[in-house]
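Table S7 (text form). Paired inputs.
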Amino acid sequence: MRQIFYITYYEMAHIFKDKILLLLIFVVPLLYAIFFGAVYSQGVLTDIPLAVVDLDQSALSREVVKSFVNSPRFHVVDGITTYPQLAEGMGENIVRAGVVIPQNFAADAALSKGAKILTVYDGSNLIWGYNIRKYTQEIINQFSSYQASSYMAGLGLSKKEIIDVLDTVSTNITIWYNPTFSYASYMLYGLIMLVIHQICLLSVSLTVTREKENNSWLQFLCSPLPAWKIFLGKALPYFLAAFMNFCLLLWFITSFMHLKINGSVTLIMLLGLLYTAAVTSFGFYTSLQARNSLQVTRYIMLLSVPLLMVSGYTWPQTHIPAFINSFARLLPFTWMAEGLRNVALKNLGVNCLTPAILALSLMLVAGILLVLTFKKVLNRENHTGV
């Protein structure tokens, strides 16, 4: 145990001597969390810039305009009164949506011809498009219900009769797990796991390559220490730092971003332990195989791009090709990101998370076995030529 402690102390000394590595391990994760928190601080889209083109200029059309002006979901932009101006405003991103009230709108409504309102929105960004469509439908449906009830009241129907007509077919909508459709709740847990993954993987992957570049790896290979002690001594600081960052970032988003963790904290800690340990072991194995730090950095950069996409965190796994799903299931991030969201948002128990726990445990065992198979032999490159 003393030998492991000496190697750990040696590795910690290197970390604190290297200012860049020190910042990378202990400061960058928190800076990323603050950055992501600032980006997703609002959580729900409000004050969406909207243009209303009223071509009818009737009392009824002005009531429609008033409905959008009074909605907290939209901010009606002044100065856009024609369809060409609306198209120009959409192209220049001055507005993200537009409502066009046609001529004879009030006359068609009075004759029950089915007055229609045109709604256009920017679909280039799906977040804008989805929310705009939902919000405009809510406002127009509420306006239609109000007009229908006013018309039936004018015909002499009682309040109960009007309610019976409007409620002929109705639905009760209950939203589970994320009732406010908060984008912060949807994205932040996965982004935090991505930060932990990449920072931990990169930092631990530089341990052996640094020794190789400094020609000091030979002292470990020539020592009487077994491979597992070398691995444990050098990887332990990075594992502890990764798990500390995991706890710190969860505390940050719950305390300052006000994201509520509905599930078991103990279960989350178990997932975090397995996840950081698995990533640490694979990072150390990568460091053993890589020739230098530049090669390690290239490997990590190649891995960072597809993690969120292939994991099924932002796009359902059922709609991802099977061969990509097979690859994604080999990554610890796939199981951890979804497992954390299932605990934090859905309050699922250990029975539902057994596949994730087993997968992370198997990955941890596989990573440790890979690390312990390395031979204490200095591999020299073969050079040919004169």
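Next pair, protein 2 of 2.
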Amino acid sequence: MKSQITKLLINEEGMTTAEYAVGTVAAAGLGGVLLKLLTSPEVQDLIWKIVQQAFSFLFFR
């Protein structure tokens, strides 16, 4: 009887499904934030300046 109660209390069946759901929601949220950041004009200008400096450093030293 004790082992059956212990199995019921420790049973984690379905737990992996919940973990996948939380991970999926977190990944979707992070993707949304990255999309919003990368489409903003300020961040696009910053990335463009970094790329320009990198190429000017490589080719025009």
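Helices lie at 2-10, 15-38, 41-59.
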